[in-house]
Amino acid sequence: MSECDYIVIGGGMAGCSVAYFLSETANVVVLERESQPGYHTTGRSAASYTTVYGNAVIRGLTIAGRAFYESPPPGFTEVPLLTPLGALFFSNDAHLPMLEELLEDVDDPARLVRLSRDDVRARVPVLGPQVVAGAYEKTARGIDVHALHQGFIRGLRANGGTLHTNAEVRGIGPTSSGWQVETDHGTFRAPVVVNAAGAWGDVIAERAGVATIDLRPLRRTALTFRPSAGIDFAHWPITVEIAEDFYFKPESGLLMLSPADEVPSDPCDAQPDEIDIATAIDLAENATTLRVNRIEHKWAGLRTFTSDRTPAAGFDPAAPGFFWLVGQGGYGIQTAPGLGQAAAALAQGKPLPSVFANTGLTGQELSPARFR
What is the tens place of the pLDDT at every residue in 116-131? Predict the structure, then answer.
């Protein structure tokens, strides 16, 4: 029997980030069902940091984490967490109202500027003549997902916390003083259990006898390919069709392409569907002069949303000591430092830290009580 202050179920970005921040003042154990942490969604992310992506809560969480990204604690990482990228959102005539809505919603020239058709095609020359306008986010960055995830794990261990892999939860239930979790690595007890199990979040809740919150795992597909010789794409921004029909971006000397699909799925080791791969290629080849002659790599991952597409971070109102940290959707990497700090504070009964001062967030927006 192992006793600790917090048991975190899930060793992906969400679980490791909250565990890292909790471990600054508490004894934390992380339980990961796979042989390596971050095997599922964390390791399959598009890895972009953009403050104009997602709803107001997502944007607030992203902005709150900027300082951590730019100046992580000493020893956290040996490489920059953010790298230059930029984000270009382009529109045809049919989707122009969506572009106007984005520009009106953000309304901050320091972050997002309007582009003419010529400006758009100057930045990404392969875009076709149907493009009529665009918007450019100059503050968007690429994220080194591996460095971020490993930094959280390294920091957790340096603070005295532990991470167990191959530790699937076999049983979980309340005790007189908190929660008991049974795994292949033994039994763990703590006053608080943090459910950061991603697509398996509702599964963990059911095993614990806690009402689920209707999490929705959605499969997203991606592929990489090498554009034709002579196309200088190394410095292109992440390029997104404003209705999110598809996007592409440079990645390790190739272009990554996704149809931005959202296919309902059970929790699983997601695999790409050939129809979705074909759809991505068709969309890109119809909207650009790009041609996908050979696929270098293809994969899929699950992006798990709540019904309002906003993460749940807080104690379950009907299960004392059961803390939800799920539903990050497609924003889990970019929000990790902000959401990790928020969740750690809420799990300790504290107000949100000072990095949230100008975001308008209070923590109530994240409460799972909204689903009861």
Answer: 999 999 999 999 999 9
Q: Which CATH code of 3.40.50.1820, 2.10.109.10, 3.30.9.10, 3.40.800.10 fits the domain covering 87-138+219-305? A: 3.30.9.10
- Rounded to whole angstroms, the Cα distance separating 75 from 71 reads 11
Q: CB-based burial of residue 23 (10 Å sphere; 0-12 exposed, 13-18 middle, 19+ buried)?
A: buried
| Assigned superfamily of 2-75+144-215+308-371 | FAD/NAD(P)-binding domain (3.50.50.60)
Tell whether the torsion through CA atoms of 206, 25, 164 and 325 is positive or negative.
Answer: positive
The structure's pTM equals 0.95
Beta bridge partners of 28: 6
Handedness of CA 110, 112, 117, 118 (dihedral sign): positive
- Of 182, 146, 191, 144, nearest to 164 by C-alpha is 182
Tokens 């999490």 — which residue? 215
